[in-house]
Amino acid sequence: MINPSQGNHVTTQFFPGFRTSLVEVAPGVQINTAVGGNGPPLLLLHGHPQTHVIWHKVAAALCDRFTVVTCDLRGYGDSSKPRGDASHASYSKRTMATDVLKVMQSLGFARFRVMAHDRGARVAHRLAADHPEAVQRLVLLDIAPTLAMYEKTTEAFARAYWHWFFLIQPAPMPERLIEADPAAYITDVMGSRSAGLAPFDPRALKEYQRCLALPGAAHGLCEDYRASASIDLEHDRIDLERGYRLPMPLLVLWGGQGVVQRCFEPLREWRQVAGDVSGEALACGHYIPEEAPELLLARALPFLAVETP
């Protein structure tokens, strides 16, 4: 079911010409979605602690080649924020991947390309693993596989990605602390990376702050991370044990000034779980779509434009 979205003001401001909707993907769960452009379908997924607005600097160029579908993950932005439970299954990447698959199917797209950043890239990884028939080509931005990152955690990584270990603490402690000042959480977390707050449009920062202040947003954000440290690792280990490898072409890009570059070997890690992997570090930090939109387009567009049978 597709309903008119309440986020039209956001779409008009950041994505002129896009149309918005709330797509019902499960009882009581709606995913805020914006669609624009023409051509083969391309799904864009955002990361923490942001929304689909992260793509506002590259959307116009992508729309010249693709029908662009961008949405807020469950728990984020103007999408639904269901309560989690002890298993964290409602925020597993398997569940979140099913959400976005249903969004694409509701729009009539059975097969599509995906480009995703940070948390969205973890959803995209699970989407590609569970539904390889749907994902034609995949671009993942500034992550290594979740299982590898947890299993190879060092002191340097834990200090830099402290929020991974804060957000997984039992409810309601981290939620209560975020809700005390959600605007500060946005600027403190995002501003602590290599580029500071300079790359971000002030309007985008205000939008991220608005969304994190919505009821249930802090809980959704925490549940996303709690799932990644529990049920998601179970799913990843099953794939590893059965020798499953992603079959579609995969492009991995990461920030040369970021934590993933310092603490991991992204290409090596992705080649453990996928068969056709290419990629490189870009001259930027973590928030690639906003820090280095031109570099991202120069590397991702040729890859995404290739026709895949």
UniProtKB/TrEMBL annotation:
Keywords associated with the record: Hydrolase
Domain AB hydrolase-1: 40-172
Highest taxon, organism lineage: Bacteria
GO-annotated biological processes: acylglycerol catabolic process
InterPro entries given in the database record: AB_hydrolase_1 (IPR000073), AB_hydrolase_fold (IPR029058), AB_hydrolase_sf (IPR050266)
Record-level GO cellular component terms: membrane
Gene Ontology MF terms: monoacylglycerol lipase activity
Keyword Hydrolase: yes
Name of the protein in its database record: Alpha/beta hydrolase
Source species: Massilia polaris
Organism classification: Bacteria, Pseudomonadati, Pseudomonadota, Betaproteobacteria, Burkholderiales
